[in-house]
Amino acid sequence: MTPTLRKIGREWLWGYTAFFAVLLYLPSACIMLFSFNSGIHIKFPLDSFTFDWYRALAANDSLLEAAGNSFRVGFVAASAATVIGVLGGFALVRYRLRGGKAITGLSIMPLLIPSIILGISLLVLLRVIGVGNSLIAITIGHVIFCTPLSVSIMISRFVDLDRTLEEAALDLGAREVGTFLQITLPLSASAIASAFILCFLTSFDEFVIAFFLAGTKSTLPLYIWGQLRFPQKLPEILALGSCVLVGSLILVMLGEVLRMKRATPQ
Amino acid sequence: MTSGQGTLWKRYALVTPLCVTTILTVLVSLALILALSFQTVDVVKLFTSLTTDAYVENLGRPLFWRLLGRSIVIALAVTAVTLLLAYPAAYFISFKAGRMKNALLIVVSAPFFTSYLLRIFGWKIILGYNGILNALLVDSHIIAEPLQTLVYRPSTVVVALAHAYLAFAILPIYVALDRIDRSLIEAASDLGARPHNNFLRITLPLSMPGVISAALLIFVPTVGDYITPTLIGGPDGSMVANLIQSAFGKANDWPAGSAMSVATIMAVALPLVAIYGLHHQLKERRLTKSGEAAAA
Fold first, then answer.
1. pLDDT at res. A9
2. Residue range A170-189: average pLDDT?
3. Range A88-117 average pLDDT
């Protein structure tokens, strides 16, 4: 290939990737655009610019309650999934446990089942063990749904982590628990934070499992789903959606930056 | 680290919560679905006898097979479209992006973690009768009347689902591409291979593990997707998840929903697991072969 052709090839890929990135944000951008439109209908030309729909959000009690529920469920589910992921990932990487490879492979099982089937089967399981539909049931479902993510983030961090630091501590007489708490955990702090953030967002967004396990109290995606039926509620949902999209975008970028940060001592 | 017998159980204790949440709970709840699928709706008779009624009644209906078939076709189309669109972007980020690599990777993968429900709903705003696309087409006098047919069709479901999984598909493909030893490609170039040969005979085959795991992680959830067909599928875009949901919801016939779930899992998961296992076997055989060749 001549240099000019190669240059065209390179620029074609550049252009394609830029187009790809724009395409990814297109539906979200449309939601944000119409959230500032004063008219109730989605049509061009836009009516006038307004913040009214955002003001209405702050006065909507059932929305605020659903948002609060989502924050609580997300916080608890992400905390539990992160702890499980840190402990399990550490043991799988550091100790050659019998069956460890099988456990690593099978731990993504919740992602290999369509979530509607995961949702109904958890519904049946929780009924059998006597947990009724509630926010607690949703939290349990989300721990199961989020753990594959946290364990995969932690496994790749522990694989990258320089083992000589841990070995040095052990050689100098530190106990295994002390080494884990004082060497391993601080060196993995960015990955742990990233696992927590990404699990929180996964839970905060999750709809199908929550749909089957919800009792009288709903989470934010369930609230949004319920409101989509009413055309006159649309602008408010678009404003809410814009807040959720911007907030989660900021969090996910933080989470990804932390995930990519290399495990090097200061 | 030494592994004394005393500490062994402690080490297993560390993975126990992981095994319980991700493996045991899922297996037990799937087993319960299987058990429930052989029961009757009658609560009094629950778990006292076995019956295949739920299978006979629901799997005997052509409706179930039509929707399952449509779900599989839609999921295959979504998987193919997503992989084809994501691969060049993943390739660019891994091979050509230079210092922009991490920043680009974050930009293209971030949308996956932002509300799925809202991203799908965004397509309704774009493609709906009063949507953005119709408004633009009418305003620019390309068409006189808004098109009725943009939304509520199976093809709309494919577009929205493929779009939803693009941000996700890029990650496993990127990881596989980034692992490729660049000296292999340099060596081939030094020996006179053309760039497209390099790509077809080195880069593409070595990135296949990433492509296959991306395909699995797209295909499985899209077959059972509920949000997209419900929001923008319309009557012709219903998928198997809609049937399962109505059995557990309105109809309140859990055995029926369980039987359809079991059939869906069988129809979808088993062939996939077989393909995945075969792929692993092939890979290992290839590795041992090249190892033998190197030894000889």
1. 67
2. 88
3. 88
Q: Lowest-pLDDT range, A5-19, A134-148, A165-179, B124-138?
A: A5-19
A20, A23, A93, A228: best mutation site toward chain B, by most B Cβ within 10 Å?
A20
Q: pTM of this prediction?
A: 0.89
CATH at residue B140:
1.10.3720.10
Residue A124 and residue B258: Cβ atoms within 8 Å?
yes
Q: Is B230 on the interface with A (CB under 8 A)?
A: no
Substitution target in A12, A36, A116 with the highest count of B β-carbons within 10 Å is A116
What is residue B294's predicted lDDT score, i.e. its pLDDT? 54
Sign of CA dihedral A143, A149, A153, A154: positive
User: Under DSSP, is residue A49 helix (H, G, I), strand (E, B) or coil?
Assistant: strand
Pick from B228, B235, B178, B182: which is nearest to B74 by CA? B228
pLDDT in tens, B74-86: 999 999 999 999 9
Q: What parts of chain B have a pLDDT lower than 50?
A: 1-3, 296
B179 Cβ under 8 Å from any chain A Cβ: no
Both tokens assigned to B188: 């081939």
CA nearest to A85 within chain B: B18
> Given an 8 Å threshold on Cβ–Cβ distance, is B166 in contact with A23?
yes
Judge contact between B171 and B218, C-beta under 8 A.
no
d(CA B40, CA B42): 5
* Partner B, chain A 96-125, Cβ-Cβ below 8 Å: 97, 100, 103, 106-118, 120-125
Domain-located, residue B73:
yes
B197-216 residue pLDDT tens: 888 888 888 888 889 889 98
Count of the separate structural domains present in chain B: 1
* Residue-averaged pLDDT of chain A: 88
Residue A37 DSSP SS3: strand
Residue B142 near chain A (CB below 8 Å): no
Q: Is residue B171 part of a domain?
A: yes
Tell me: pLDDT of A44 over 80. no
Predicted ipTM of the assembly: 0.86
Asked whether the beta carbons of residue B223 and residue A42 sit closer than 8 angstroms, the reply is: no
Task: State which amino acid sits at residue B144.
Answer: A
Q: Once rounded to an integer, what is the mean pLDDT over residues A59-67?
A: 91
Least CA distance to B161: which residue of chain A?
Answer: A24
Interface test with B, best of A101, A113, A149, A167 (most B CBs within 10 A): A113
Within a domain: B226: yes
- Domains present along chain A, CATH in parentheses: 58-263 (1.10.3720.10)
- Dihedral, CA of residue A9, residue A10, residue A12 and residue A13, to nearest 10: 120
Chain-chain contact of B29 with A122 (C-beta, under 8 angstroms): yes
Window 131-160 of A: residues touching B by CB (8 A cutoff) are: 143-144, 147-148, 151
User: What Cα–Cα distance (Å) separates residue A45 from each residue in A50, A156, A238, B14, B98?
Assistant: 15, 50, 18, 60, 42
pLDDT at B1: 46
